[in-house]
């Protein structure tokens, strides 16, 4: 890192918080909402400490913080998304604080915002911090806003199918179960058996559940009314990244004309496109799925090439509905949300 850009990380509090968050990003399981909130907390520190130094340093610091968190866990989009949202706020406040926007419009053609000094740094600081607080309030309302839509999509005596564990899906199903009776088939997700956790939690809530192996999904899909799963990221074209094995579920659902519903907060919405799957995917050790170590030294086994991705890409044509904290909409509507949340020049930090 360039020495001229290190001042924003010199503070012990910022370095300590950054180190802890990077550690959390590398660990499993993780909470996307917590990562988003912790990222905003770091961004608040950066804006508070550097607002008086000018717009250029604030923007560079926010970009570098998002980059550092991505290095901590390269396939994690949430930290970058929070940095992009704060950058959009900074750009908007700059435009508001300056009467002329022509300079910024010209600079945006070159992919960089202008770097003039904002006349009233205190006003900029106050407004940006207020906007960060609003984003934090929005994160606090993610799960309640998702769960309140459950009765619109889940009806009595339906058979639902889900895959693995998702906090959004768990709260979504629990909310519907308070007023309606339905059955949930849970595929265990054999990569980490996270479906067992969901089954245990739903059983405590008196939800009628059936836990199955992943191999039984296709056989049971014909009696399913709706598939509801979570996602790790919502891409710019409306496709989603979800746990390994979910593409099989999506393909089976499409074959039997079963609607696929994705439950995810908009803090997972990223302006990136899934054009390079080798960059977007995490490849894990095959030992997680091949636990019989006696075959590892066999000559035939050494000739095998085994891929064990942590995530699957589900294209938008497989998805019927995205249920988010801003309501439900089709994948084709994602581009409008992107324009509302992010600035085009911040796609690459």
Can you walk me through this structure?
This protein is of the alpha/beta class and 349 residues long. 46% of the residues lie in helices and 12% in strands. It has helices at 12-26, 32-50, 55-72, 78-97, 102-109, 121-140, 142-147, 150-153, 167-177, 195-204, 217-220, 246-255, 277-280, 299-302, 334-341; strands at residues 159-163, 183-187, 208-212, 226-230, 233-234, 240-243, 260-263, 311-314, 321-324, 327-329. The strands form 2 sheets. It has a 7-stranded mixed β-sheet. Strands 5-6-8 form a 3-stranded antiparallel β-sheet, with helices on one face. A hairpin with a 2-residue loop joins strand 9 and strand 10 (327-329). Helix 1 (12-26) packs parallel to helix 3 and helix 3 (55-72) runs antiparallel to helix 4. The protein is globular and about 65 Å long.
Largest sheet geometry: 7 strands, mixed
CATH topology name of the largest domain, in short, is: Rossmann fold
Shape: globular
The name of the CATH architecture of the largest domain is 3-Layer(aba) Sandwich
Task: Bin the helical content.
Answer: 40-55%
Q: Helix-strand pattern, N to C? A: HHHHHHHHEHEHEHEEEHEHHEEEH
How many separate structural domains? Answer: 2
Rg (CA only): 22 Å
CATH superfamily of the largest domain: Translation initiation factor eif-2b, domain 2
Helix/strand structural class: alpha/beta
CATH class of the largest domain: Alpha Beta
Strand-residue proportion: 5-15%
Describe what is shown at a glance.
Keywords: Cytoplasm, Initiation factor, Protein biosynthesis. The protein is of the alpha/beta class and 349 residues long.
